[in-house]
Each structure stands twice: as C-alpha cells, then as structure tokens.
Amino acid sequence: MRWTFFIARRLLLARRTRGGGVGRLAILGIAAGVATLVAVLAVMNGFQMGMIESILEINSHHLRVETETPLGEYGTESELIQRIATVRGVRSVTPVAELQTLVRGFWPEAQGIVIRAVPPAWLSEDPGAEERLSIPEGTFDVRGDRTIVLGTELARSLGVRTGDTVAVTHLPGGGTRPTEQQLTVTGLFRTGHLDFDRSWAFVSIGTAVDHLEAREPLVLGIKLDNRFSDAAVETRLRPELPPEHRVVSWREYNRGIFGALRMEKSMMTVLVGLIFLVVAGSIYQLLRRSIMERSEDVAILQALGAPTAQLRFVFVLEGWMIGVSGTFFGLVAGLALALNVNELFAALETLTAILVQRGVQVFSPAHFYLLEVPVRILPLELFLVSTGAIGVSVLAATLAARSVARYRPMELLRGE
Predict the structure, then answer these.
(1) Helix axes 295-303, 308-339, angle to 10 degrees
(2) Which three-class secondary structure state does DSSP give residue 164?
(3) Is residue 30 within 8 Å of 330, Cβ to Cβ?
(4) How far apart are the C-alpha atoms of 141 and 150, rounded to whole Å?
(5) Residue 210 and residue 108 share a domain
(6) DSSP conformation letters of 136-158
(7) Are residues 191 and 280 located together in one domain of the fold?
C-alpha cells in the first residue's frame, strides 16, 4: 500500500507531466472557501455573541422570578432573595423593575424610554453587568436622591450631559394621573447595543418608589455560574418559591430574537458553504480530466498487476491531500484575516486617505454603531469547517476515481 501514497504525492506535485497543476488549482479553491467561511463566521459570532451577552447580562438575566409584589414592598421578598442566593449554581440575585416613562431634556420633545429601577449597589453585586457597561462620562451612581444614569445615545438625543437635569413623566400602575419629577444625570453608560444606549436609563429603587411612585411588579433577576445550566437550577429553585411566582428562563424570554439570530447564522453558513459545492464540482472535473490524461500510466500500472481498487485509492488519496492542504492554508489565511480585521480596515482607511487626499471611514459612526469589528473564534466551528472541506474533497475524488474501473490496459497499450 505504500506505493499508493508515493504515486498520489507525485501526481499532486506534478508540474510538467500530463495533468500537472490540477492539484494546485484544487488546493487554491479549497483554501479560498475555508478562509472565507472562517472569517465570516468569526465576525458573525462576534456581533451575535456580543448582542446576546448584552441582552442576558443587562436586560433579561439568566433566570427571572416574576412576582406580583409591588416595587415599594420589595423588602418583603428579602428572605426569599436570601434563599435563592444559597441555591447551587446561582451567582447573584437582584431585585429590579422596569418603568415605561417619558423623558424630556434640553429639547422640548419628550421621548419614551424604559427606566430600570435597581439597588444602589447593583453594579458591584452583578459583575456580569459591570463588564458589559462602560461609563464614558460621569459615574454609575444612583445612590443619591433624584439621580439617574442615561445611555449615551439617549443623552445625545435629549441634549443633556452629566450634571444636567431631565424631566421624567411616569404614570403609576393602575393610576390616571401622571407624575413628573426632575432628576439629575450623574453618568452616561454605553453597552454597544443601540437599543439599550438609546432608550434605557437607570434609577435606584428608592427614587422610583419615592419620587416616580412606581408600583410595577418586582422581578428577581438571577445570574448563574453557567447560563446553560438554567434548566437544572430552575428545577432546584422551584421548591423555594411561592406558587404564584413564575420562573422564566433566558431561552424562553428571548426566544424570538435568539431564534432570529440562529436562523441568520444558519442561512449565512449555508450560503457561504455553497463555495464548497462549487469547489467539489471543480475537483471532480479536474481529477476526472487528470485520470483521462493519465490513462496510459494507469494502463501500465494495471498491466504490472496493480489492483483496480488500489488504483482508485491513489486518486482518492490525491483528493484527501488536496483537502488537507487546502484546509490548512485556508485556516491560516482565515484566522489571520479574522484576528487582524480591524487593523486591515485601519490600513484601508489610511491608504484611501493617501490616494484620494481625504479620509474614508469604512465603518463610519454615522452609519454603523460600533467602535471596532468584534471577532469570536469557536474551535468547534473550525473543526466542522475543516471536516467539511476535507470531506467534499474526498467525496469528489471518490466519484472521479470510479472511471478507473472502465480502463482496459491491453486496449490502451495496443492503441499506443
């Protein structure tokens, strides 16, 4: 069997013989497909996982215990909060409530926003939220009376900065008379998620109850050591809860948006993966042509006693070598592109500034809400891409190698 590896390697590296150069074209096609898919998946993972983490850490939590307790009576749930905190797998528990309000700043037009009432030490108690929130101006301080922290885009649209006041109008639950209060902006936050930065604000539970007369139901936001263990923790948690309390997992609460993101990624993977089908067809045609051009060589090997099955295996090995080589070079190129995509865009902006004497921003803040392109590389996806690339190469080579069985050595040699 060792001779099959030797001949397959010689066929792949052939330059001046008949059929030479076929392997290099096929390797180039596989490498291009792998590099494209790796780079696209890395950037898509960066955007999607950044959005998912912002939603989970700031908005929905990993588990939500929805109660019927008014926000002003959240102290009555302190014992329950302590019991939940002792459940295995729970990292933190935070009482919160969401208020639908109107807010006015320097401009007279009011905007509808969501105000989240949180404990004064919320960020220190929830490291996950602290990691996702950056404070470009001021501090995240809601401990003072009548204080509020706004999203950066919300502050820009209201025309306010740190130290200014905003008028917040809130209609208490079940009431008919709205209440309006002047709150002082102590800081601005940025999450990188436009919906939060443009339409969210934070106040303390005391400010929400005492000044905005909030009577919204209390929600206990639970963060887990591992968010994928939500089902197991929920099972351990239910015996600790009163029957009227409802537990909602992050999977159920965000089912719509996460389902859309999953579908988007699946469709993009399928579309980019079509490159492999094109490359597989090319490999099949190139190897089939190579086998036809080397028919005399195949006939000589058959005449010397080489079994047909082993001759087919020679070309299958050539396809495997094409797949492995193309996958290797494609992974190197794709990872290099993904890990340096921001540097690449910076170089492109510099080059356009030199050539056209005017700076061109690839991702202008006027059109894209991001400071840099996020990248996440998942080892499992690299394995699946590599397996798929090698698999289609071997499959195409196997189909092409079937034509070897039709050759009759005496007929071919007699013709020569």
Answers:
(1) 130
(2) coil
(3) yes
(4) 11
(5) yes
(6) EEE-----STTEEEEEHHHHHHH
(7) no
Look up the domain containing 147 and give its range: 93-223
* DSSP-assigned states of every residue in 172-208: -TT-SS-EEEEEEEEEEEE-S-HHHHHHEEEEEHHHH
Please give the C-alpha separations between residue 137 and each of 103, 156, 208, in angstroms, as whole numbers.
20, 12, 23
Domain membership of residue 27 (yes or no) is: yes
How far apart (Å, rounded) are the C-alpha atoms in residues 203 and 145?
A: 9
The Cα–Cα gap between 117 and 121 comes to 12
Q: How many domains does the chain have?
A: 2
For the stretch 120-140, pLDDT in tens is: 888 888 888 888 888 999 999
Tell me the β-bridge partners of 179.
170
Same structural domain for residues 123 and 194?
yes
Query: Alpha-carbon Rg of the chain, whole angstroms?
Result: 31
pLDDT digits (tens, 9 = 90+) for 316-353: 787 888 888 889 999 999 999 999 888 887 777 777 76
Strand partners, 99: 115
Together in a domain, 121 and 199: yes
Q: What one-character DSSP code corresponds to residue 216?
A: P
Task: Let me know: does 112 contact 200? Beta carbons within 8 Å.
Answer: no
Helical H segments across 224-376, by residue range: 230-237, 250-253, 255-293, 295-303, 308-339, 341-356
Could you tell me if residue 175 is inside a domain? yes
Residue 65: alpha-carbon gap to chain centroid: 27
Higher pLDDT, 19 or 394: 394
- Pair 146, 184: CB distance under 8 Å: yes
